[in-house]
Structures are given as structure tokens and as C-alpha cells.
């Protein structure tokens, strides 16, 4: 296996540092918002920057400069299989622990979608950077966006039809249109596609100016995203108790930590060398 994607022993100290820095920025957002130094309702600009500038910069640069020859099929299979286990396990847990009055299909779809979505990149990328080499961790996002989000959208549509949310029965055509529309309008997938297209047509190289701009925008993403998470918690912490605390913590732990470690150990099992 190429040294670029070889897995090494887990650097637990670096992992602890990564998790600590994550919670530090979340705490800063919560602290400054609670103290009134930052208005939690004035964060639309941060959200727009994260969604349309910082995250696309990370993904485009990663896809455009990725050395595709260094990626082995078994390593990719490990990522797919481990992510599938996480998504399926989350959906099953949601069905088992949902209340009787809840729509089980909807609960499964929402929880599975939460575990597959890319809004955890602020937490997930620092952890994945510790566990995986530079080229490999970029594979997390295309896999979950392209393979698992459509499945979760199907569950949501089935749930909506079963409780009559849309006042009409679910048809295969409507389901297909909903899923395809979700894929076609996903800016993350669009950026990933453009990055891969650039890589294929031109090669894994970017001009120095483009590299500098994308790197600057991308490096701002983790800190700003985590700060925004803490900011949005202002005024909502009293609601996080009992069942209201169990699900957010459980799902966040599953998709942020369990997913990365499952992929790591699955790849180690398939590629022991």
C-alpha cells in the first residue's frame, strides 16, 4: 500500500488535543454569547461564510489536489462499510427507542440523516486528520453525501407519506424526484464534482494564488464553525436535560467519534499491512 494512505498507530494524545480544541471553541462561543459580547441572532453572516465559502474551499482544494492513484479500493471499501454500519445502526436505534406516537420511519430517517450529514465537519475533520493521512480523510464527505443521504431522504419521504403529511400517497416517481432534487441542489456535492472534474482534466495541481486563497478560507472553517455551534447554544442549554440531552449527545458522539474510529479499524482489518 502507498505510504500516502498507510494507516499508523492511533496518536491518542493528538486526538485528545483535537477534541479539546473543538470544545474550547464551542465554549468560547457559548461564553461570549452568554456574556452579551456577541449577539447570537446576528450569526447569519457566519453561516453564509461557512456554507458558501469555507467548506467549499476545503472540499474543492481536497478534491482538486487529491492523488487518486494513492487510494486503494479496500481503503475506500472500509470507509463505505463502516459508514454504512453507523448510518444503519443509528436508524435502528431510532426505531427501537422512538416513542409510540412518533413516526418510526421519520425518526429513523432524521437520525440516520443526522449521522450521515456533513454538518459535523467542524468536529469530524480535525479527528479524521489525526486518524488518517491528508489524502484519505477527504473521502469521508463524498461517501456520506453521495451514498447515504439519498437513502435517508427516502426514509423521510416514506415517513411523510405514511402519516399523510402531504395529503397524497407516495409514488415511486415522487420519491425519485425528491431524492434527485436533493442531490442536484446539494452545494457540497456540486463542489466535490467540480473538484474531481478539475483533477481529472488538469491534474492534482492548483496555481499558487488559488491554493493560497482556498487554504486561507478553508483553515477558518473549523474554528468559526465550532464558535457558531457554541453561539447557537445560548439560551437553549436549559432545554438540554433528560431525553432532550440524550439524543443530541448520542447522535453527535456516533457521527463525530464512532464513525471515524469505525472507519479506521475497519481499514486496519482489511489492510493489516
Automatic annotation (TrEMBL):
GO biological process entries: transmembrane transport
UniProt name for this protein: Uncharacterized protein
Spans through the membrane: 20-38, 45-64, 76-97, 109-131, 137-158, 179-198, 245-267
A GO cellular component entry from the record: membrane
This protein's UniProt keywords: Cell membrane, Membrane, Transmembrane, Transmembrane helix, Transport
Record bears the keyword Membrane: yes
Annotated localization: Membrane
InterPro entries the record matches: Mem_transp_PIN-like (IPR004776)
Principal location: membrane
Keyword Transmembrane helix tagged: yes
Organism listed in the record: Eutreptiella gymnastica
Amino acid at each position: 500500500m502507498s505510504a500516502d494512505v498507510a494507516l499508523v498507530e492511533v496518536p491518542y494524545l493528538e486526538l485528545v488535543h483535537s477534541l479539546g480544541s473543538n470544545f474550547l471553541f464551542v465554549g468560547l462561543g457559548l461564553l461570549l454569547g452568554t456574556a452579551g459580547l456577541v449577539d447570537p441572532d446576528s450569526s447569519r453572516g457566519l453561516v453564509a461564510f461557512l456554507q458558501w465559502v469555507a467548506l467549499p474551499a476545503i472540499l474543492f482544494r481536497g478534491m482538486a489536489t487529491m492523488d487518486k492513484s494513492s487510494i486503494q479500493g479496500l481503503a475506500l471499501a472500509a470507509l463505505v462499510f463502516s459508514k454504512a454500519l453507523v448510518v444503519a445502526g443509528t436508524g435502528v436505534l431510532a426505531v427501537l427507542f422512538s416513542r409510540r406516537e412518533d413516526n418510526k420511519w421519520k425518526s429513523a430517517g432524521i437520525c440516520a440523516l443526522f449521522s450521515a450529514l456533513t454538518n459535523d465537519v467542524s468536529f469530524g475533520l480535525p479527528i479524521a486528520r489525526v486518524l488518517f493521512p491528508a489524502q484519505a480523510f477527504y473521502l469521508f464527505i463524498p461517501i456520506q453525501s453521495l451514498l447515504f443521504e439519498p437513502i435517508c431522504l427516502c426514509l423521510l419521504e416514506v415517513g411523510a407519506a405514511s402519516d399523510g403529511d402531504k395529503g397524497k400517497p407516495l409514488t415511486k416517481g415522487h420519491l425519485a424526484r425528491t431524492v434527485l432534487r436533493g442531490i442536484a441542489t446539494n452545494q457540497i456535492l456540486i463542489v466535490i464534482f467540480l473538484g474531481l472534474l478539475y483533477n481529472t482534466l488538469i491534474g492534482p495541481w492548483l496555481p499558487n494564488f488559488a491554493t493560497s486563497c482556498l487554504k486561507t478560507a478553508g483553515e477558518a472553517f473549523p474554528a468559526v464553525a465550532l464558535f457558531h455551534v457554541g453561539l447557537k447554544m445560548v439560551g437553549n442549554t436549559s432545554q438540554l436535560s433528560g431525553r432532550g440531552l440524550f439524543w443530541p449527545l448520542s447522535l453527535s458522539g456516533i457521527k463525530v467519534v464512532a464513525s471515524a474510529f469505525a472507519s479506521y479499524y475497519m481499514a486496519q482489518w482489511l489492510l493489516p499491512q
